[in-house]
Amino acid sequence: MTTNNLLLVITLLVTLLGCRINGEDKQVYIVYMGGSRGGGKDSVVSSYVSLLSSVLGSRKDAESSLVYSYIHAFAGFSAVMSKKQASAISEKAGIVSVFPDRLLKLHTTRTWDFLQSESGLPKPSYKTTGDSIIGMIDTGVWPESPSFNDHGIGPVPSRWKGACKGGPKFKCNRKIIGARYYSGTGNLGSAKDMAHPLSSRDDLGHGTHTASTAAGSVVTGANYYGLANGSARGGSPTSRIAVYRVCSKQGCQLSDLVAGLDDAINDGVDVISISIGSGFQTDFLQDPVAIAAFHATQKGILVVCSAGNEGAALYSVENSAPWILTVAATTLDRDLESDIILGNGKTLKGHGINFSNLSRSKMYPLVNAVDIALNNSDPTDASNCAPQTLDPGKAKGKILLCSSNNDYGYVESTKVGVQGAGAKGMVILNDSQTTVGYDYGTFPSTTLSDKDGSEILSYIRSHRTPVATILRSVTASNYKPAPVIARFSSRGPSQFTQSILKPDISAPGLNILAAWIALNKSADIPPGEKPSKFSLQTGTSMSAPHVSGAAALLKSVNPSWSTAAISSALITTATFTNNAGAPITDSYGKKASPLDMGSGEVNPTRALNPGLIYDTTIHDYLLFLCNWGYNTSVIHSVVGNRNFSCPSHATDAKISDINFPTIAIAALKSARTIKRTLTNIGSASGSVYKVTVDAPRGLGVKVSPSQLAFSRISEQVTYSVRFTPSNTTNKRYTFGAITWADGTHSVRTPFVVHIGDQDHSK
User: Which candidate in 78, 541, 556, 593 is catalytic?
Assistant: First the structure.
């Protein structure tokens, strides 16, 4: 979720790219053939054309059908085919999967200071190489933004193999070291209008915002028309950025995204950041992002993805492959306060962004929208201020009180309805939206909680001529409690397996200030202001680059760390309490569970020195695929060799035994023992870690041994956890954590256990 209008447009455009050729319905299909096969580009492409020829009938047809050849990280291609032809090619030897191309959707001054303050530690002193590289798979960037200046940054790393192919007037520097754009599906006849501009330049703002959040240079005096003023920087301000523009105003074409991932892996990035999702889930070898992320992991590249904005229901999390670091969204300790003053002198603290030109000195009539409904309008629609439901003659010049449902996009519809009726401003009652900070632009608006809504309704009913005014937004600091899990943030577990915990971790995703494009021509720009170089944006799109930046920082400080070491360090050191000293909660005030937030909010300071890690290997991920249901021959194609065989009696339940930094059990009906292995990366002189267990009622949790001794770096020690349910007739999720501490380090492993038969409610 980024700009409000963009969200509304994109959600309507998640459709298959199709065309009609020679009387047949055809579209782009992606053909996945497993691990990279090596060889020169020409020979690989020729082999793809030959394979296509066997189905399409001629080499000429195959060459014109081919959209992309994927050759660097994995083998495969995308091509225009009919459904029948795609089915035929799926039967060919060496084909792992074939699936249709799809249109995907796009899912800070205070941020990093807040995360530092939540660590409870002094600001760390460390040396970085400055050579870590983040690949941003997004809408491109605005390279002239001050967040991408390269002052004080050294030469481009010699290992970089990418290129600056950003298009006309796009210049790279020592911060933005590479740029590519993709528009392969733009050549398909009726689909031409979906082609991306032939440039890596961002004309939406999303990619600029995410890239600067991850690795933006320090910019003093950053703000959004006076809001959230301070010094903006990315999580790893010395890291480099490589830009892969795969998205346009219509969305993100899957075949373009895969091409960008293929190039990024070959170019030599260390971290790939993806704030894109499909809005639905598919199995792991039918999901190109999961496929590419697996091959990136093989090559030592960490892939970080947003969890999605489909919360707060269970099973809504996207990008849920275990080798992806999946990020949920939280709030900051900063509120954007837009107050309403009633005629009786009472001030109610509203929330949201508005640049109202109203003042305290003049009040306007205040009415409940349902009381000025048109005669033929549905009362509920009128109460929600839906377009064309209100009497313009009774609405003009007044401030309207509107109810609203929990859908983020509906707020925009409410605004359209109120403005269309000629009202002077609006107050929306919606508990779940008070933490979102919706951007109303210059139209005087604010959002109130249901509690404050009761007070304003009481005022309207008890006064013959109720009046009010709405003030321009201001920044409120040190807001408590924070962080809070955002309502829109997608929840786990994955639809495909409850035996892994998703999301993995959380990060700030509401009202994040970061760089923006210089093309804003909106009428909502405050009078006399120029387009802002920064913007406040909301969504898990904003959360993912926070973790990408943190991961790049860890890689820059510790160049030898593997993707597993970085992931484990981030997960096991995450913060699980808020700035009021209590457990992190959701937007309704309930204690957040690991299904809401993963291990907790990312804590880069603590992650720099985790002490111990769970060294999850490629072999572990192959075991996951076996246990999930893929056979040995399929996995041989994925890996690219035959040095692995699936164990006998592989089942989904055995996924829980894989050495992940978290523990998830899908259906605990009797006592079960889980093992985990920790690797020492902390003290070379020896250390002893003692365990503490946070166990829920009704679940016995016994860890053995109760302490672990390490005498050298890289030493590994295994422990076991026995889970024993007291009652399995009451099916339920239970949550807890196992923490190992040596007085300096604290290594926390959250667990999710579903007691009783596996839960399939969605």
Answer: 541
Domain 18-100 maps to which CATH number in 2.160.20.80, 3.40.220.10, 3.30.70.80, 3.90.1150.180? Answer: 3.30.70.80
Q: Which of 72, 97, 107, 138 is catalytic?
A: 138
Query: What is the CB neighbour count within 10 angstroms for residue 704?
Result: 10
Structure tokens, 610: 């985790």
Strands (E) in 391-545, as ranges, are 399-403, 425-429, 439-441, 445-448, 467-470, 474-476, 484-485, 505-508, 512-515, 534-537
Catalytic residue status for 541:
yes
Active site (annotated) includes residue 206: yes
pLDDT per residue as tens digits for the range 278-337: 776 778 888 889 999 999 999 999 999 999 998 888 999 999 999 999 999 999 988 899
N- to C-terminal Cα separation, the chain: 23
Q: Are 206 and 306 in contact (CB under 8 A)?
A: no
**Selection from 129, 135, 127, 125 nearest residue 153 by Cα:** 129
Contacts of 23 (CB under 8 A, 6+ apart): none
Q: Pick the catalytic residue from 206, 295, 351, 745.
A: 206
- Give the mean model confidence (pLDDT) for residues 517-543: 84
What count of other Cβ atoms lies within 10 Å of the Cβ of residue 693?
Answer: 15
- Domain spanning 107-332+483-607: which superfamily? Peptidase S8/S53 domain (3.40.50.200)
Helix (H, G, I), strand (E, B) or coil at 575: strand
- pLDDT range class, residue 523, cuts 50, 70, 90: low
